[in-house]
Amino acid sequence: MAAGGSGGRASCPPGVGPGAGGGPGPSANAAPALGNAAAAAAAAPAPAAPGPPPPVSGPGPGVQAAAGGERAAEEPGAGALLREPVYNWQATKPTVKERFAFLFNNEVLCDVHFLVGKGLGAQRIPAHRFVLAVGSAVFDAMFNGGMATTSTEIELPDVEPAAFLALLKTFHHPQRNGIPLPQPLTARNPLPVSVDRPVLDVSHQWNHTLCVLLRLASLTEHRGSKSTYAAACVSPFLYSDEVQIGPETVMTTLYTAKKYAVPALEAHCVEFLKKNLRADNAFMLLTQARLFDEPQLASLCLENIDKNTADAITAEGFTDIDLDTLVAVLERDTLGIREVRLFNAVVRWSEAECQRQQLQVTPENKRKVLGKALALIRFPLMTIEEFAAGPAQSGILVDREVVSLFLHFTVNPKPRVDFIDRPRCCLRGKECSVNRFQQVESRWGYSGTSDRIRFSVNKRIFVVGFGLYGSIHGPTDYQVNIQIIHTDSNTALGQNDTGFSCDGSASTFRVMFKEPVEVLPNVNYTACATLKGPDSHYGTKGLRKVTHESPTTGAKTCFTFCYAAGNNNGTSVEDGQIPEVIFYT
Fold first, then answer.
1. What is the pTM of this model?
2. How many Cβ atoms are within 10 Å of 520's Cβ, its own excluded?
């Protein structure tokens, strides 16, 4: 039976309802929907006896119940006219799914009405407490919680009737798995939820949450809001477990599902995003995943960025990310890109951020908006030519930083710099190393000749550095050039002019390449190290074959070491320098 209007009215309290300043809501830059489908209108109460139904209050298209008729076919974008007989309507609905679908926007069994809109444009829309509460914790709290309303009419004056009807509109199409993207999720098809707008906790007072959600849905019909379309996914899902998700609506649907606490619908949205994640939308989806607290999706986005860093940072969405997301990416050791290209991308981001903050685009303001992100650029990984041509002339670094970095590139011992010099391995997994010596002895001298040893491996690896012996005379600084050479072609595949400090112990000290060096299976390579400094420790009782076994997977990486003919400063398989190879598989 239709609920009457004699009960009290609940409305959004001042300061928390739609339109209240500072409240979360839809992004101001919500993109338009695929079409301008007209919303279905509210159904009028079913008559107690045959006769014409009473008119629906408020202007606009109506949905009327009439005995003895049939439901008219609904054309796309048109309101459906209900002509289903009220008596014994269950007989024509063989499944629970069909019976619940019949109740959409229908006075039959209705026990609550929403009074939506203002003045002459207001409409009275029927709903069913049980159906909404079963599918949503927010509706459950609204109707059954400690602050539950007893009203049979709930007033939503700041929500447009068309948007609320869209929220309740029925979809008659079953969910399809693996929906292809009719158009890609890119910056040209932006996600409509603002990244700087926090997500509400669904434990907030129910009418606050409901009003915010409906405000999301109430982006005006003439704008063809994607948010309105997305909100329409929620109630049909509550009634029938059916949902349609597309690139235009997936983020607003996820937003709405989280607000209404419908985890099954959230899972549909996240799965859709996972299937359609690409380099050109990875940064946008990463921002949204962080906003919506979806750690699994965020992890997949970061892995995609690691593998496709160059493509990801050139996508339009990169300059739209927030500072915290930029910092999260720059902190990673696994980005696959040269540092100078990463710096150029960060400069582009800073220019866009200056414009967002309405600041003049100057080097000082670029530095200001970058904040803590600037210290995460690994300038020591650049070559001196790259640094001189780009960062040194950008004006973003202060004079002290420029001088210290130039000194880092040119002198030994190298001065301390305020920037990270750890290589970005662009690799996942755990760092590994092998040591080819079983014993350490004293006094290995240097006269400008390279220590060299040939090696090959049984599988593809990435060498990131060597472990070298240090001084026998206490704490000392060494200048060193390290290389990996393709033996047959005599081509240097990777090298670094750097230095290291030792403490006088017999330990090995890490000397790293600026970028990982790919080493292919069963190919001969030569490891070279040219040291300048005092006499050092050296290794003896060398092994020709050394195997590293992964403690987690049991996978084995086998190294075979051979004598490198020519000038090698005495290093051989049996004794010498270059005791360790540091690598990733």
1. 0.52
2. 12
